[in-house]
Every structure is written in structure tokens, then in C-alpha cells.
Specification:
- The chain has a single domain, classed as Roll (SH3 type barrels).
- Strands 4-3-2-1-5 form a 5-stranded antiparallel β-sheet, with helices on one face.
- The chain contains 1 helix and 5 strands.
- The longest helix is centred in the first third of the chain and has 7 residues.
- With 75 residues, it is mostly beta strands.
- A hairpin with an 8-residue loop joins strand 1 and strand 2.
- The chain is globular and about 30 Å long.
């Protein structure tokens, strides 16, 4: 998914999956808020290790819609 599509598609309660890089492991977290002006959004994310941070998405990152039937976990 392209970064532009990713930013406009994300909503509070969705999950984001970030692929591994040469220096980091793959991870995922729940989007707590979408912040910033249109076209420059970033996400406040609570990662699986319970840390929170502001995250600017990049190409290759994936938003997973929250499924109301499965609760807060991505499917």
C-alpha cells in the first residue's frame, strides 16, 4: 500500500504492521490516534510491548482494519 493511501485509510483502533529492516525486527501496534494536518499525518501507536510512540508510516507498512467481531486484535 502506498504511503498516501495508508495515511488516509488509517483510523483509531486499526492496527499497523511494520516490516523488518536491517536494524529492526517486524512489529505491530494499535493506532490510538491519527494526528497532524492532512497530507502530513502521523499515528500515535501503542506497540505490542506496551510502549507508545508517534509513528510516521513508510511504504511497505500495512494498516489492518479493526474487526469489531474479533475485538481489538488484528485477524
Amino acid at each position: 500500500m502506498r504511503t498516501e493511501q495508508l495515511r488516509t485509510a488509517a483510523r483509531r483502533g486499526d492496527w499497523i504492521r511494520v516490516h523488518a529492516t536491517a536494524h529492526t525486527a517486524p512489529r505491530q501496534g494499535r493506532i490510538m490516534a491519527v494526528e497532524g494536518p492532512p497530507g502530513h499525518e502521523c499515528f500515535r501507536v501503542r506497540w505490542e510491548d506496551d510502549c507508545e510512540s508517534l509513528f510516521v508510516p513508510a511504504d511497505g507498512d500495512c494498516v489492518i482494519r479493526r474487526n469489531p467481531y474479533l475485538g481489538n486484535r488484528p485477524d
